[in-house]
Amino acid sequence: MIFSTLEHILTHISFSVVSIVITIHFLNLFLLVDEVVGLYDSSEKGMIVTFFCITGLLVTRWVYSGHFPLSDLYESLIFLSWGFSLIHMVSYFKLKIKKRKNNLSAITAPSAIFTQGFATSGLLTKMHQSAILAPALQSQWLMMHVSMMVLGYAALLCGSLLSVALLVITFRKAIKIIGKNNNLLNQSFSFGEIQYMNERSNVLLNTYFLSSKNYYRYQLTQQLDRWSYRIISLGFIFLTIGILSGAVWANEAWGSYWNWDPKETWAFITWTVFAIYLHTRTNKNFEGVNSALVASMGFLIIWICYFGVNLLGIGLHSYGSFTLTSN
Amino acid sequence: METLLNPSKTPFLFVPKTHFFKPSLLHPSFNPRPHTPFTRRPLSVAIICKLKTSQGRKNDGKNNNISKKILLSDSAPELSNEEGKAKAESGGGAWRVIRKLPRKVLSVLSNLPLAIGEMFTIAALMALGTAIDQGEAPEYYFQKYPEDNPVLGFFTWRWVLTLGFDHMFSSPIFLGTLILLGTSLMACTYTTQIPLVKVARRWSFLQSADSIRKQEFSDTLPRASVKDLGVILMGAGYEVFLKGPSLYAFKGLAGRFAPIGVHLAMLLIMGGATLSATGSFRGSVTVPQGLNFVMGDVLGPTGFLSTPTDAFNTEVHVNRFYMDYYDSGEVSQFHTDLSLFDMNGKELMRKTLSVNDPLRYGGITIYQTDWSFSALQILKDDEGPFNLAMAPLTVNGDKKLFGTFLPVGDTDSPNVKGISMLARDLQSIVLYDKQGKFAGVRRPNSKLPIEIDGTKIIIVDAIGSSGLDLKTDPGVPTVYAGFGALMLTTCISFLSHSQIWALQDGTTVFVGGKTNRAKAEFPDEMNYLLDQVPEIVESPISKQPGSIGA
């Protein structure tokens, strides 16, 4: 009884903190409030609180139900948002050591927020109860396979979003022409660039504003490109380990390591697309925009693999299925 | 400058072959030009080395060195021309083309855009394979992709059946693309990756400040010594090589070798999977509790390399099948107690299987995959026990339902009435009377009688049957080895190979470096290291007499 109330409390705390943080981020972006730095710090603290809340939530579920908290879609969504907040924490502390502003927080924080919000919202209420484990899932492999897969998805999603951001910034002029009325988008990106330029060089800003704007945009895209490559490489390693441990588990449980099950096949397709991404980066000519295009495709494919296949509800991975009608 | 005159420090150390020829090259006549860019030298040295070996050590005269260099470089093409002329008329042209063919095929196969295209094709075919239902009868496809109303305007059942999309993952198109990808992997490893390794392993020293400044990351330390830099780099985990004023350091060389390992691991997995597909045996059987079967009767081959073994003659006896339940009534686990006997009736092995815990014997593995309800044992009016066979009933969803029927009264009339019994699992049986009204629930082994329409029924036992899958697969060790290698090499290829060059020019040290993966963090790491290099306050010239004297 204690555990279920604790779980309830933690869920509500994390959801509220997450909503506050997102409000702060939007205020930062659109209203250009003067106390930017103070609010930025509090949003970072909010993300730290969220991280500990989600960790607590997962540990509580683990103790309460007796099995590792990754047996159905709701739990894997919580784990995914934990993965995002973990990546956010790591990049925050790594960049803090070097005294540089964390540009990646614009990607990792909202991802954690939206995933957590979706999971704890009213859409999936009937799955909040910790369910009992089907016989096929009662294995030690459950921990390794599913956790590696979900962490891999989190890292690859972050990396692909960074690539999408790179594409948007590179083609912002084209977008500007297309969407002249979309002042909000332009404002947000120019604000981001101004912040970036403040970081880099205060002296040059006033005198070389217009010509250095392109240079700083180039610097920003370079940094996005490199971070995206590193994070996607890390996510690729996790995805490889996840797929292979899943294959070994399938061999132990059902007698064959690859059954061309829809979920397995789509995981393999995701792996192939990111392998294409890593190979395009070996060639200097394809670096930059081309590889970012591949990574953006990867973003869509991960969502099909993670969510789309579960909607079908068939095959060996039917534990993750759910119906869209909320009860 | 001193290094060029000092024989023990000839700049030929980097090319591994040359240290065999060191004595012959310390010839006073050898006069390299002082400021040539480094890249040109190795070629000239190599040619001279080869000259020496081919001539034996006979001609050590001064003039012969230079003259031979000129002679042979002119004569070499002539020789091949003569050779070519001699053979050209007699169909030698075709022979040369055939000899060149493997090289040309290799260069075509190891083309990167081709490999990327192949990977895209495989991904698209797999996606198509999940969209189209696999393994159905042709009539299903006639119905789903009709010709008079094609999907997407052109996709009819003709496309599906002729291209083999109904069995996509074993169709010729898919397997052909996989084989092509495999050959591309092999070609790429041979032509591109292995030479890269050779290049990466060389210690290459940059001798001019310009080439150092052209690196991705470069910096200048005004008053420093290259030796201090070397010590600091060693402390940071780099392997440092110092030669006079120039320095070369690298870290993370494993990150260059690992991609080769990845390709080899993939080839291993593909080979193992091919072996599995062509050489394994599979079968599945549902055995009621108490019965037995022979393994060889159940297993069927999957490909042309499948050969049965002696273990196929083993008899398997199901001693007991039982299930565990949660408190809520859901099934938690199924167990089967099996005994293996050989043809003489001797018991070889006894084990209780459950879902994630298979039985392994003689290369054959038995998995618990399913269960069924075989029969219900009842006592009717204290007569019996009668075994009523239970039949599976179709229900929506994945829950199972079994039912049986006990006729009551006149069994010969066409409208036989009786007692129906339904069960979802082996735990409890639900009984219905002649009109179909609910009569009661009984658990087997409770010995509690139930009275329905004047008949007394006691449920004695629920006999389940175990669904077992048998398999023997020779490719599994290879595939597991490939899996392990792939996991390991993928992790290692995350390491970034960083190279740093430095040159001491007077009191200034020029530093340049590059890395292949961690490009975002490299400048910060370099700045951190360079900050630690101590600044020399006294001039090095005034220091020298002191050090020589001491």
Low-confidence stretches of chain A: 202-208, 322-327
Structural Rg of chain A: 21 Å
Oligomer: heterodimer
Percent of residues in beta strands of chain A: under 5%
- If you compute it from the alpha carbons, what radius of gyration of chain B comes out, rounded to the nearest whole angstrom? 40 Å
The total count of helices of chain A amounts to 11
The total of helices of chain B stands at 15
- Distance N terminus to C terminus of chain B? 24 Å
> What is the share of helical residues of chain B?
25-40%
Query: What percentage of residues of chain A falls in helices of 4 or more residues?
Result: over 70%
Mean pLDDT level of chain A: 75
- Largest beta sheet of chain B, briefly? 7 strands, antiparallel
The averaged pLDDT of chain B comes out at 76
Shape of chain A: globular
Q: Biggest β-sheet of chain A: count, sense, barrel? A: none
**How would you classify the helix and strand content of chain B by structural class?**
alpha+beta
Features:
heterodimer; A: 327 residues; mainly alpha; 0% strand; disordered C terminus; B: 550 residues; alpha+beta; five-stranded antiparallel β-sheet; transmembrane (chain B)
Summarize the structure.
Chain B: The chain crosses the membrane at residues 105-132, 173-192, 253-275. Chain B: Residues 114-374, 428-526 form the ResB-like domain. The complex is a heterodimer of chains A (327) and B (550). Chain A has eleven helices and no strands.
Structure overview:
The complex is a heterodimer of chains A (327) and B (550). With 327 residues, chain A is mostly helical. Chain A contains 11 helices and no strands. In chain A, α1 (2-30) crosses α4, α3 (73-97) runs antiparallel to α4 (105-120) and α5 packs across α11 (289-312). Chain B has 550 residues and is α+β, with helices and mostly antiparallel strands. Chain B is 39% helix and 27% strand. Chain B contains 15 helices and 21 strands. Chain B has helices at residues 2-5, 22-25, 40-55, 62-109, 112-131, 138-144, 157-162, 172-201, 209-213, 226-235, 254-279, 295-298, 476-492, 522-531, 540-549; strands spanning 217-221, 239-243, 246-251, 281-288, 292-294, 300-301, 315-325, 331-341, 347-354, 359-361, 364-380, 383-389, 391-393, 401-408, 417-423, 429-432, 438-442, 449-452, 455-472, 498-505, 508-515. Chain B is elongated, with a radius of gyration of 40 Å. Mean pLDDT of chain B is 76; it is low at 1-91 and 542-550. The chains are: A mainly alpha (327), B alpha+beta (550).
